[in-house]
Amino acid sequence: MKPIISINSLYKTYKSGFKALENISLDINKGEIFALLGPNGAGKTTLISIITGITIPTSGLVKVNNFDVIKNPINTKSVIGLVPQEVAIEPFETVLSSVKFSRGLFGKPQNSDYLKKILKQLSLWDKRNTKIIELSGGMKRRVLIAKALSHEPLVLFLDEPTAGVDVELRKDMWGIIRSLKENGVTIILTTHYIEEAEDLADRVGFINNGKISLIENKKQLIEKMGKKTLSIHINNSIKNIPNNLKKYKLEISNNGATLIYNYNINHDKTGITRLLNDLSNENIILKDIKTNQSSLEDIFVDIVGK
After folding, report:
1. Which of 19, 129, 177, 225 is most buried, taking the most CB atoms under 10 A from its CB?
2. In a domain, 265, yes or no
């Protein structure tokens, strides 16, 4: 299967000399949800702007649906929908007229049934005759998605889609994103909410300082790089780690009532059995043991830190 988006040796340097992107190469497959993670200023928005034809790259090749974004801008833009971070919509237009206008910009013929379908999917049908200025922030963001989908794109970019949205509405938006994928839309998601990527994405890409540091299937990434933490709650608090236990690099927490042991789940020997035996030899009595596996957020922080 050919990728729907193909990026090769992409560079973007501004007149000031700032290198926003450096040697980016990336393929995004049709029908997947791809999460692009990175700190502020990492290059996420610049990358999206180049793919969507808003910004011109310094060098490199970007193809969308096998069309070059520079040589064939009309073809590429016709298959792309973009939901930007900023909510900028005509405030005195109604929801339906705003979405119709967006469809018309791409030269698409009227299709009332399709627009009704996406407005219902986004829980906007009952608000179709409401002026946008009267909507809540969350509803305005739904309108942005409806406008981006109005011309039936193959690819949808969601740049911080749930920024400023309350937790309940954010979960609702996650459901919308999943349903879009089920309808065959390829989704590229940038987000500061790492649990969003962990919950939704098929693959995850990390970008920092304009460079892609890692691209991996989400589940495989967590299995490959994930670590587990063993929290050992003990009967009698301790202030210092005994010499015979220092090789385990234990951490003391909870005022000495808990010992923390970090280990890699992929290693054949985790060292847990030896640790428990050595704790017993030191007359440290266990009260309880709990394990916790690292999340995508832990991995992200680790990668950015490095």
Report:
1. 177
2. yes
Asked if residue 60 is part of any domain, the answer here is: no
**Residue 293: in which H helix or E strand, if any?**
strand 286-293
Task: With respect to residue 78, please indicate whether it lies within any of the assigned structural domains.
Answer: no
Interval 24-75: pLDDT, tens: 999 999 999 999 988 888 899 899 999 999 999 999 999 999 999 999 999 9
Give the mean pLDDT of 205-209: 88
CATH code, domain carrying 245? 3.30.70
The count of structural domains within the chain is: 1
| pLDDT of the residue at 164 | 65
Rounded to two decimals, the pTM is: 0.74
Domain encompassing residue 252: 227-305
Q: Are 6 and 62 in contact (CB under 8 A)?
A: yes
Neighbour tally for 172: CB within 10 Å: 16
305/55 Cα distance (integer angstroms): 29
Judging by DSSP bridges, how do beta strands 80-83 and 155-159 pair with one another?
parallel
In a domain, residue 47? The reply is no
Q: What's the start-to-end Cα distance of the chain, in Å?
A: 34
Under 8 Å CB-to-CB from 116, ≥6 apart: which residues? 125
